Amino acid sequence: MRLTRLLAAALVAAVLVVLTGSPAWAHNSLTDASPAKNATLKKAPGGVKLTFLQRVDPDALEISVADSARREVPASGPEASGKSGTLTFDDTLANGTYTVTYRVVSLDGHPVRGSYRFTVADAS
Predict the structure, then answer these.
(1) Measuring CA to CA, which residue among 82, 30, 36 is closest to residue 52?
(2) What is the distance, to the nearest Å, from the Cα of residue 23 to the centroid of all Cα atoms in its chain?
(3) How many helices (H) and strands (E) does the chain have?
(4) Rounded CA gap, 30 and 104, in Å?
(5) Spatial CA neighbour of 66 closest among 103, 44, 96, 46
(6) 6, 42, 51, 122: which has the highest count of C-beta atoms within 10 A?
(7) CA distances from 89 to 10, 23, 98, 101, 123 (A)
């Protein structure tokens, strides 16, 4: 009987550990990006598409792109659709390195921010 109580207590403790860790699972995260992180592109992209683990709240979505001089690239958007957010550039990007910065809000209400770089190396 004592062994049964010990096993039951251990099971309850294990369940509590798993359940208290679950809020971290609720945070949104970037699952795919186009252009991809650290990509070197032979042709300038027309915009950025980011795909996340969870649905994107259109009112909380922020996406911007800056050139190597930290000047923001003129763009329309961002727009959200399902788990994706997009930003469309107003003009063709020149050769150089660009930084994509984003912010979304997780289903649990926590903001998630991130950034990555890509390079345009158009030979034409």
Answers:
(1) 30
(2) 18
(3) 2, 8
(4) 9
(5) 96
(6) 51
(7) 56, 36, 12, 14, 20
Sequence-distant (6+) residues with CB within 8 A of 90 are: 73, 74, 75, 76
Task: Read off the pLDDT of residues 52-94 as tens digits, 9 standing for 90 and up.
Answer: 999 999 999 999 999 999 999 999 989 999 999 999 999 999 9
- Return the amino acid letter for 85: G
- Residue in the block written with tokens 């609720």: 26
Structure tokens at 49: 């598409």
- Whole-prediction pTM value? 0.78
Contact 55/105 with Cβ under 8 angstroms? no
